[in-house]
Write a structure and sequence with these properties.
The chain is of the alpha+beta class. It has eight helices and 14 strands. It has helices at about 70-80, 105-120, 125-135, 190-200, 200-220, 225-245, 255-270, 295-300, and strands at about 5-15, 20, 25, 30-45, 55-60, 60, 90-95, 150, 160-165, 175, 275, 285-290, 310, 320. Strands 1, 4, 5, 6, 7, 8, 9 and 14 form an eight-stranded mixed sheet that branches. The radius of gyration is 19 Å and the shape is globular.
Length: about 325
């Protein structure tokens, strides 16, 4: 019996937005993220010659063949490396709302990479697992690691993978404001492609990223939550600005997203260390000190419902669950 593998979501503080190579998922720029404990995916894989084709059971429901695209990219790579031809049964339990900008693909494809390689008898290093996960979802390359991780863009399949940066074992956390957990209208993949191909602001975004990344790594080395938050907020706003200049233009923000951003600015006026970041979705994540989280949450409860607020702390890297 194969074992369950767990991978946690990560939230990018220096964003990945745009591919250099669509097929291999080679990004236009390096990115840096924090893996979190609150959201995760558990997956196990069984290669079974009696199956007619690959099957995916997500949260107890068999998925249509059309949902297997990213999954089969990872499975085919594993089969090729292991020299096996059997179809696979993939069972996955997602403790993350899917396609809502909460990094479900990061945890999902990272867990799949770990479970599939284990089921095939491959003993992959973390670097090799990161490359494998990347083939399914770029951000999944970073979920192999706990704490802060940097995805090095590289130039080809062999050189594009994530590396650990810092274990984040200090006073940093995130508080999620869930304004909408529905599936978004424009997927990350489609939004990214449209932005790269048509946005007048895209080249300007790329030109600022090396400086942002250098400053972020310095802030992390100093364990400076305020600087980490400032850089992350500025980087996120620049990323989202590129979508407004795409053709046709689009945005992941909603009125509730903007209400949440205003609440974060109000928190700063009250003296809290609080800065927001957003991925390709409407939900807002607050970079903050763990030691201030209770006070921040109490303030936010005057604006949002309790079930909209989720506390998160630095989470672990990919690991096998005991049976």
């Amino acid at each position: 019996m194969t074992k369950w593998v767990r991978a946690h979501t990560n939230i990018a503080l220096i964003k990945y937005w745009g591919k250099e190579n669509e097929e291999l998922i080679i990004p236009k720029n390096n990115s840096l993220s924090l893996t979190l404990d609150a959201f995760y995916t558990d997956t196990r894989v069984t290669f079974d010659q009696s199956l007619v084709e690959d099957e995916l059971i997500l949260d107890g429901e068999k998925q249509p063949h059309s949902a297997l695209g990213k999954v089969q990219t990872v499975l085919n790579s594993v089969r090729e490396q292991a020299g096996i031809t059997s179809p696979a049964l993939v069972e996955s339990i997602n403790h993350v709302p899917t396609a809502a900008g909460l990094a479900s693909s990061a945890s999902g494809l990272a867990a799949l990479a770990g479970a599939a390689s284990q089921a095939a008898g491959l003993k992959l290093s973390q670097e090799e697992l990161s490359k494998l996960a990347r083939r399914g979802s770029g951000s999944a390359s970073r979920s192999i690691y706990g704490g802060f991780a940097e995805w090095i863009k590289g130039t080809d399949d062999a050189t594009s993978f994530a590396v650990p940066v810092d274990d984040a074992n200090w006073d940093i956390g995130m508080l999620f404001i869930i304004v909408n957990d529905a599936v978004k209208e424009v997927s990350s993949r489609d939004g990214m492609k449209r932005t790269v191909e048509t946005s007048a602001f895209y080249e300007g975004w790329l030109k600022t990223l090396d400086a942002d990344l250098k400053a972020m790594k310095q802030a992390i080395s100093e364990k400076n939550v305020e600087s980490v938050g400032q850089i992350a907020e500025r980087n996120a706003l620049k990323m989202h600005a590129t979508t407004l200049a795409a053709n046709p233009p689009f945005t992941y923000w909603t009125a509730e997203s903007m209400k949440a951003m205003d609440a974060v600015r109000a928190l700063r006026k009250k003296g809290f260390t609080a800065y927001f970041t957003m991925d390709a979705g409407p939900n807002v994540k607050i970079v903050c000190k763990q030691s201030e989280m209770t006070g921040i949450k109490d303030f936010l409860l005057t604006h949002f419902e309790a079930d909209q607020l989720i506390e998160a702390r630095p989470g672990p890297g990919i690991h096998t669950l005991e049976q």
